[in-house]
Amino acid sequence: MSTVQENRREAMRILRRRRRALAYRWLGIGFVALLAVFALLNIFGKKKTFSEAENRTLADFPALTWESVVNGDFMTKFEDYVADQFFARNGWIDLKFWEDMVLGKKESNGVYLGKDGYLMEVPEEPDMENMKKNLQSMADFADRHADAAVYASMIPNSFYIMEEKLPYGAPVRDQAADISGIYDALDGSVRCIDVSDTLRQHAQEYIYYKTDHHWTSLGASYAFEDLAEQMGLAGDASYEVYTVANDFEGTLASRSGDHRSSDTVQIFENADSPVDYVVLYVEEGEKTSSIYDSESLENKDKYTVFFGGNHARVDITTTGTQSRNLLLFKDSYANCMVQFLLPYFRNIIMVDPRYFYDNVDLIMETQGITDVLFLYNVNTFVKDRSIADVLAAETE
Amino acid sequence: MIFSSVFFMFVFLPIVLLVYFLVPKRLKNLVIFLFSLVFYAWGEPVYIVLMLFSIVYNYVAGIEIAYHKKWKDERWTKITFWMAVGVNLGMLGFFKYYGFLLENLNAILPFKIPFRELPLPIGISFYTFQTLSYIIDVYRDKVNVQRNLISFGAYISMFPQLIAGPIVRYADVEEQLENRRISLAKFGDGVTWFLCGLGKKVLLANNIGMAYDSIAALPAGSLSAATAWIGCAAYTFQIYFDFSGYSDMAIGLGKMFGFDFMRNFQYPYTSASITDFWRRWHISLGSWFREYVYIPLGGNRVDRRRHIRNILVVWMLTGLWHGAAWKFLVWGLYYGLLLLLEKYLLKNVLEHVPGFFKHIYTMFFVMIGWVIFASPDLAAGLSYLGAMFGFGAGLWDATAVYYLSSYLILFILLILCSGPYPYKKFCAYCYSARKKRWGAALVFYLLIFVLSTAYLVNATYNPFLYFRF
Lengths: 396, 469
Prior knowledge:
heterodimer, A: alpha/beta, 15 strands, 18% strand, B: 469 residues, 2 domains
């Protein structure tokens, strides 16, 4: 090799090294500049208390005490505070979601990103021990109150009914097996009403929200047909349907960060036998004349248009002349079922065991309960830890 | 506090950098020492006492050993030395292995010894090995005794490598503690390491970790072979990108402060044998064991029987270093046996096998090893291995399709980034002599920074696998 060539190579190498060093220097400056800008934006940015997009309260600056420092509480909370109050937080969250999409991910934060904008909760493993206790207590309760008709209906979740909307092959629990296991355990004491087949027949319709973990009023109306038949309520009513919200972004949208679709909330009013009634929120001591809470439509969670959310006990007294009184043990899925049940009972007492600590046997005795219905969605039921406690017989 | 958190990056780091570069040179070690204590106390407010004790004790022990040496008092030199080794190992043993030991004793003894499992002080396995390297090297005259408590404290507690290594030997930084070059270009070099590590950890490891976690959470009997292999591959990538990413961040931070630490990983998944793999994986740990256990035991310059014993001892210890559990012991011995096998039986065979098969062979055993490593216990590990070989739920199912299609892009990225090729290409492109394109490097690194920050702000999932050790 000639020296000319060698010199040329040497010069190239020096040039390459210089350019690398130049890049490093500017990178050092750029990095520090970005750190400084971000830090300043965080310090002087406006603090927020609530995140609409995530539907949760954001962390506040923690109180500094000796104890909280020694046990590490202060540090953890300080870190939460910095992350929660990061400038342009929503923008970062959107960027992260976009990155996930580019990577081709099909789930985000325990939510499957299904077809046609459907978001579906990744079902968790059941809490077998508590579920057994709950089922036993339900059977005991039914046996104890043999004079009342006790029903149970487990509402399947969207991932099971609308299976074809899941990402292909996404692993889910076999909810059919879960439901039949529950019904088997209750068999003989409680009359079980299976609504799965009915819902499945309407799987192509809008029976579950896309962005929320609840079912729609339409879904509840189909399930009601089964309930009406089994419970001997006059079915086949015609309904006046009102659309009350078009821009509902539910909890699954918040959890997954996927804000690409939104939902419509509808309410159904029985057109054949309209009833007047009074709703009493027992714990809160409030009375209204509607099961719909129009103020909730201003909120993020528009599903709370039904009763404004969950309450320990809600008593509904109708002006009708029916003779039956219903005690409804429920989770939030039942909130939109009550609109269908209204015309057929004189009194409906809704009890949410998660918030209720009183004696239910007393309700049975004093309120002349003729019908009891356990209405839950499967995901909530298999994780529930409150039913057994509420149903436990009072031992004096 | 971990590096890949909003708090570290946008609160702690800016403050440290500001103070470090404002103070005069003679105060820089003090700044490192004090901030390291804050960094450690942030996650372990109580165990900071333990660390301070370790620093002071080893500082004094070093001086004492040097003192006895100076007066040629061999007996006392030995006594002080072994005493120091005992105290360091005793501390590690008590906090890390005491619960495990008693648990197993209780299982075989007719009576029960009551005990309370202590939470493991973060980083104790790392800083104990650092103090030992100092004590042993002072004893062997490999390094000078450190008489400056601040410098010594800065070495032991140095936050970049405090909780997850690399295990920096005192001999390697002795000079740097007093005299190190700090420059803008070196700082920028550190930034490239740091951001590469951040990207590896946050963009690659955390994301593929989700695949592993959700596969591992599936009921054991329902795994098809394909799904089990996908899960195993996911963990294989997760642990590499997680740990090497963290090491890279440590090395990068070190460079920002003017230190040069040894690199801890050298593309281990491109290894052509198990022996090669352990020269490229967690290099600082391997070389620590070689230097302070294997060679003092006689290394390979002894007869075959003792050599086999040496290998097995070293690998049993390496396994146990990763945690106080039987699975880690088995995992260590597994590698010990593989290495012996390669050394004594496969050596000639491997030489004649085409490279492609050597890589397959290596990765196969490495992946099997990770199953043992990752499973909650040996029984779970065995049933997972069973699923991988078709004893679960068949060979193939829709779940496998789901995971493969969800993570395909990520898997391709991970495979590419496991080898040296992309970085080489990147350098050739950005630092070309023909065209001025270094700006592209700048854009690339800052892009990683921004993309990673998005994940950190949403930090719902940010585990760190090497925290337990």
